[in-house]
Amino acid sequence: MNRPLVISDCDEVLLHMVAPFRDWLGEAHDIEFSMVGADFANALRHRSTGDLVAPGDIWPLLGGFFDTEMHRQQPIAGAVEAVGKLSEKADVVILTNLTDERQVARARQLRDVGIEARVFTNQGPKGPALQAILAEYQPSRAVFIDDLPQHHGSVAEVAPHVTRLHLCGEPLIAPHIACAHTLGHAHARIDTWDKALPWLLERL
């Protein structure tokens, strides 16, 4: 029988993203990042004018961050150790919503902090990408971990047998993200690895 499989997101699950992105926006672009509510589009303002950053400018800013500033991203507390423990019982792969040309940089970034795992890049809903990973690995059971409820919804639609954990390890945004467990798309919402790891190991 094949091993169990853990399919994990990266940003805000394994590595902090919003906090270093916020710092870089202030330093390099004189932009203030302040999350009020769940709408990322309303979180960025030009300090000089107080105006919101135009929606069309947000994606280029995110792209610039991932092109030049990934070294700023540090592990979520307990994430590296948790992946190590999970790897003893299961295969662990990363399913990250970055463009394909950033796959090598993401894998290197994770390796540099002590996470050795195969990286799959994706754009849009994660359900179809997860289906393709399951088809390749044919695991005895599978667990999906992500910080965004829409991805749990996507996975629940196409692979309802996969155990789904909603985990957002970034305190800056965790309170503002709708709970996938409450919405019925995830089996649990746990935002710290010290509590998430025992839950995951029990289900593997």
Distance, first to last CA: 14 Å
CATH superfamily of the largest domain: HAD superfamily/HAD-like
Overall domain count: 2
- The proportion of residues forming helix, as a percent range, comes to 40-55%
Walk me through this protein's architecture:
41% of the residues lie in helices and 15% in strands. It has two domains: 5-16 and 74-203, HAD superfamily/HAD-like (Rossmann fold, 3-Layer(aba) Sandwich); 18-72, no CATH class. The chain starts with a strand and ends with a helix. By secondary structure, it is of the alpha/beta class. Strand 7, helix 7 and strand 8 (188-189) form a beta-alpha-beta unit.
Structure at a glance:
The chain has 204 residues and is of the alpha/beta class. Helix content is 41%, strand content 15%.
Search tags:
single chain; 204 residues; alpha/beta; Rossmann fold; two-stranded antiparallel ribbon; 8 strands; globular
Chain-wise SSE layout:
Blueprint: E1 5-8, H1 18-29, E2 31-33, E3 44-46, H2 55-68, H3 79-89, E4 91-96, H4 103-112, E5 118-121, H5 127-137, E6 142-146, H6 149-158, E7 163-166, H7 180-183, E8 188-189, H8 193-203
Helix pairs in contact: 3-8, 5-6
